[in-house]
Amino acid sequence: MVKIGYRHIVDELNTYIPGKPIEDVKKEFKITEVIKLASNENPLGPSSKVIDSLKNHISSVSLYPDGSCNCLRDNLAQTYNLPPECFIIGNGSDEILMLIAQTFINPGDEVLISSQTFSEYLFTSKCLEASIKIIPQKDFRYDIASFPRYLTEKTKVIYLCNPNNPTGTIYSKKDFDDFIAQIPANVLIVIDEAYYEYVNKSDYPESINYLSTHNNVLILRTFSKVYGLAGLRIGYAIGNKKLVDLIHKVREPFNVNSLAQIAAIAALKDQEYVQKIKLLNEQSRQYLYDQFDKLEITYIESEANFVLFEVKENAQDIFQKLLKKGIIVRPMNGFGLPNHVRVTTGTLEETKEFIEKLKEILTEKNVDAVMKSH
Q1: Rounded to whole angstroms, how far apart are CA atoms 64 and 73?
Q2: What does the pLDDT average to over 48-72?
Q3: I need a surface site. Which of 35, 105, 215, 223 has the fewest CB within 10 A?
Q4: Whole-prediction pTM value?
Q5: How far apart, in whole angstroms, are the C-alpha atoms of residue 175 and residue 4?
Q6: Same-domain status, 366 and 313
Q7: How far apart are CA 68 and CA 52, in angstroms?
């Protein structure tokens, strides 16, 4: 029993459970080949230019990194045609979400969060003892039209995820325009766009364009997904300089390691590789759609690098059966979707292997059903 006193809010928190590591699956099931399609990672990894840059700078790790990430911020500023002061870099977007909460949320402040969305919004808000309002989704989409109805004088932060994780759906520019017109200037709007680069829909709102007219908008983007740097932990936020300056005050010094900064700069410059990854994602995603249609499996069309699909049994059971066959996916029980599974788009070979293993499971299930009926 722990005798040292701790904050009461800790009892209300749950330990985050990430996707199952490949080595753990190999060891547990005594198999040698495992495909991980659970954490929405880039199946090809970082570009060769990133690898070369890391090799060239590996000897610099004896020195402290650039504490302000000035070189990376300059590169981002050039990319987005914004001042470097509008950017803050974090040890992954997770850190930035915690920094935002630490900067703006006082105990009792209200935050608005959608149901079935990225869990870090809820976690960081709980850590700061916010009063949390969960806004139900409509047809696996953010119902941002209903958000303004939940506003009170105590509302401090609204969290949006576009495309949404785990559904892959987006809200349109028209929906966002209608929404933002009703939000007071003293309410912070945090827009998480981790999957921004994958979106092709013409009605997707270009959130950068709102920064010049709205000082209460913060946009989160990451190098973990399309750029393939998840293991280095680096993300960034874009916003009004005064907002960013406030967040810098609670940021730890040297929060982003030097190799992550080097890799991000190289990745940002290799947009040809980004296009290659986007094309691969579209091909693998379409293959999933086609196969799900043939198998009569219900799925949600996605603007990200994953697809949410429905199963006829508990998602945890499908997850375990796929694990035994060397495929790691993500059951959605923790998102309040006990009959849904999220699968990352891998290479075409990986995606085809997933479908084959899923077919085997469905065939085995049908055989079992026939046997039991006799």
Answers
A1: 17
A2: 97
A3: 215
A4: 0.95
A5: 49
A6: yes
A7: 24
**Closest to 157 (Cα-Cα) out of 114, 93, 204:** 114
The tally of domains found in the chain comes to: 2
Same domain, 117 and 29: no
The whole-number pLDDT of residue 16 equals 82
Whole-number pLDDT of residue 366? 59
Contacts of 228 (CB under 8 A, 6+ apart): 41, 42, 44, 45, 46, 47, 50, 267, 277
For 184: left if phi > 0, alpha if psi spans -120 to 50, otherwise beta; the answer is beta
Token pair, residue 7, equals 């904050």
Q: How confident is the model at residue 20 (pLDDT cuts 50, 70, 90)?
A: confident
Question: What is the pLDDT at residue 19?
Answer: 74
Domain boundary pick from 218, 233, 268: 268
What are the phi and psi torsion angles at 227 (to 5°)?
Answer: -85, -15
Stretch 284-294: mean pLDDT, rounded?
99
Range of the domain at 213: 46-268
pLDDT tens digits along 130-168: 999 999 999 999 999 999 999 999 999 999 999 999 999
Residues 6+ positions from 148 with CB-CB distance below 8 Å: 179, 182, 183
Supply the CATH number for residue 98's domain: 3.40.640.10
**Separation CA 212–CA 240 (nearest Å):** 8
**Selection from 156, 158, 147, 217 nearest residue 182 by Cα:** 147
